[in-house]
Amino acid sequence: MPAARATSSVRALEAILPLIASGQPYEAHQKARTFASRYSKSKQYDAAIDVLFQSARELLKIGQQGSGTDLAVFLMDVYESKGETVSDESRGRLTQLIALAGPSGSWRKTIIDKAIAWSVKVGPHPGGDPDLHHYVGELLYKEGSFAAAEPHFLAAGKRDSARVLAEMFIEWTGPHGPAGPFALRGTIPYLQNGNILAARTFINSFVSQLTTRRSSLLSPHQPTPIPVGNSTDSELDEIVFTTDSTLNFAQLAVRACQRAQGDKNKIMREAWVRLWGTYQSKGGLVANGEVRKALSEIAELYFAMPPPRAQQANPLGDMISAMFGGAPATATPSRRVLTPAPPTSTPGLD
Predict the structure, then answer these.
(1) Residues 6+ apart with CB under 8 A from 115
(2) Which end of the chain is more exposed for a tag (fewer CB within 10 A), N or C?
(3) 131-138 contacts: CB < 8 A, separation 24 or more?
(4) Is the pLDDT reported for residue 154 higher than 70?
(5) Is the pLDDT of residue 310 over 80?
């Protein structure tokens, strides 16, 4: 910490923190805002950040969620004024405050939403900082807030996030619940985001954990996994055929997208059409209207296949966008196609 910043923030904190310790949180909150405003106006952003962070942290520790959250939001306003980028330090301050805010009320959500919005503005990730999303997802998952954790794991897009999402979905579906819907809830959004690695990691982990717990799901016609590509030390690349057609489709869809090269690979385009058509004809989830719309978007993205005429906006994409401050598209979006990957050198699926 630079000397000037240390002197300024230490003097301010010497006036603020004793008030919190002596049971005067309102007075401490007002002093913190006053000092931080003064520092921010004179562009002493580091001093303002230090005062706001430490004051918010101590207020949250004693259960003053309203005052602590207000200072946390002010802290992120100063981040924006300074042009603070996402780093371990800047993110670490926020994750501490998010943890201390606690699950009661809407205080923590206010900090989370503001933090993600800040990371969108200053970072390279349109959906927000992946590490921040992953931290929030794990925090919510550990508290049993599965529905709230789900979009954060999807937005994070990290392999660890995909694995934890699979673990959470296994818990969520329980010992006898339907697995197919959860398989698609993890696979489709990752594919829509162009994140094949996360999609593959998710579905591999999900199917592996599920069939370990429910061995009766294994197909009697093919009880052993079929290798389809190059496995690594950390992940096997194989298809596990089950008695649940949606699980089988999700695994095969990921491998097809993995080998897609837009309109360059006619064989894979035809394979996708046959795969989709076969499983759609079976009925069930793959034939559901909303799922068909999502798969149509995936077909366009990976195989450069134009969507059906008069297709409406994809509700899954709109849902994820709306959760993090975006808005559903109101006009026809421009065509989105991934850059074709180089041809695979192996006959199997990579």
Answers:
(1) 76, 94, 98, 132
(2) N
(3) 131/91, 131/156, 131/158, 132/86, 132/91, 132/94, 132/95, 133/161, 134/158, 134/160, 134/161, 134/164, 135/91, 135/95, 135/98, 136/98, 136/112, 137/161, 137/164, 137/165, 138/164
(4) yes
(5) no
Mean pLDDT across the chain = 88
Query: What pLDDT digit, counting tens, does each position of 25-84 carry?
Result: 999 999 999 999 999 999 999 999 999 999 999 999 999 999 999 999 999 999 999 999
Q: What is the model's pLDDT at position 327?
A: 52
Alpha-carbon distance of 26 to 64, in angstroms, equals: 9
d(CA 260, CA 303): 6
CA torsion sign for 296, 261, 164, 73 is negative
How many CB atoms lie under 10 A from the CB of residue 24?
Answer: 14
Give the whole-angstrom CA distance, residue 318 versus residue 330. 10
Q: For 64, phi and psi rounded to 5 degrees?
A: -90, 70
DSSP 286: G
